Amino acid sequence: MGRITINDFIKKKTECNKISMITAYDYPFAQIADEAGIDAILVGDSLGMVVQGLENTLPVSMWEMLYHTKLVSRAVRNAMVIGDMPFMSYQTGTADAVRNAGRFLKEAGASAIKLEGGTEVEEHIRAMTRADIPVMAHIGLTPQAIHRMGGFKVQGRTEDSANKLLREAHLVEDAGAFALILEAIPVDLAKRITEEISIPTIGIGAGPHCDGQVLVLHDVLGLFDRFVPKFVKKYANLKEDALKALVRYRKEIEEGLFPSDEHRFK
Ligand code: KIV
Fold it and tell me: What is the per-residue pLDDT for 226?
């Protein structure tokens, strides 16, 4: 079985099969996500927060995104690998946007890219699609715009902003995006967008009617507790498990219990 393609994404929507997606940023976790049968792995710029310990995603660079995308691509056999375009890698113009998007495919082994925005990235999506770069769009709460939005806030609650998001969903579809992330918007709006457009919607804090779901790996596994959004479901508590393991390791060293006979050379 080869890697999942954009055609498989569309087929899933047509056949009413849900799409599973998660972020990953390195070889071991990408391998686990792939073995778990997850359809798509997003190398998200959320790595700025959950891996680099930053306050937001804005400082993440192209070099860092390409580096992490390479680690993930090396591990993955089946899932689609999607590289996330960092802040200022596409906002400066269509030529920059296409050049930087192409680097994810050419240098880092991704088979698609994701970028944030609606109207303002329409031309970029058209140009990338013309260059055979599959594009996943992302509207609603777009973390690279936190300063404009005034923080990590639910979007589309007023009639005007809901209508704007609906228009933008159609716009990115017309521009050639193969899928659309809907982040932190009301359930009914996500349902309406999902019903109106022909490309799959992937929700994060957008309710159950989307064609698929995505979450940040470190939230799902309980590795990041500085800030846990309401829409996150924790499926494990790896931080607690890792802490217990390392405390035990330290104590066994201090007490002379490690290394024991089985871990020594004679
Ligand atoms: O950067 C990221 O991980 C994302 C997802 C949360 C959608 O954009």
Answer: 87
* Number of other residues whose CB lies within 10 A of the CB of residue 116: 24
- C-alpha 204 to ligand 1 mean position (Å): 9
Q: How many whole angstroms separate alpha carbon 17 and alpha carbon 5?
A: 15
- Mapping DSSP to helix (H, G, I), strand (E, B) and coil, where does residue 11 land? helix
Residues 154 and 130 in one domain: yes
Tokens for 104, please give them: 């994810």
Tell me, rounded to whole angstroms, the distance of Cα 139 from its chain centroid: 13
Q: Express each pLDDT in 24-55 by its tens digit.
A: 999 999 999 999 999 999 999 999 999 999 99
* C-beta 23 within 6 A of ligand 1: yes
**CB under 8 Å to 129, separation ≥6 — which residues?**
135, 175, 176, 177
SS3 state of residue 204: strand
Domain carrying residue 87 = 6-235
242 and 225 fall within a common domain: no
Active-site residue set:
183
- Give the mean model confidence (pLDDT) for residues 190-202: 98
**Statement to judge: residues 156 and 258 lie in one domain:** no
Ligand 1 pocket test target in 19, 22, 42, 215 with most atoms within 8 Å of CB: 42
Q: Identify the band that residue 228 occupies on the pLDDT scale cut at 50, 70 and 90.
A: confident
CB of 112 closer than 6 angstroms to any ligand 1 atom: no
Distances (CA, A) of 172 to 100, 122, 178: 19, 6, 9
Residue 152 tokens read as 């990590």
- pLDDT of 185 reads 98
Among the residue ranges 1-5, 91-95, 116-120, 178-182, the one predicted with the least confidence is 1-5
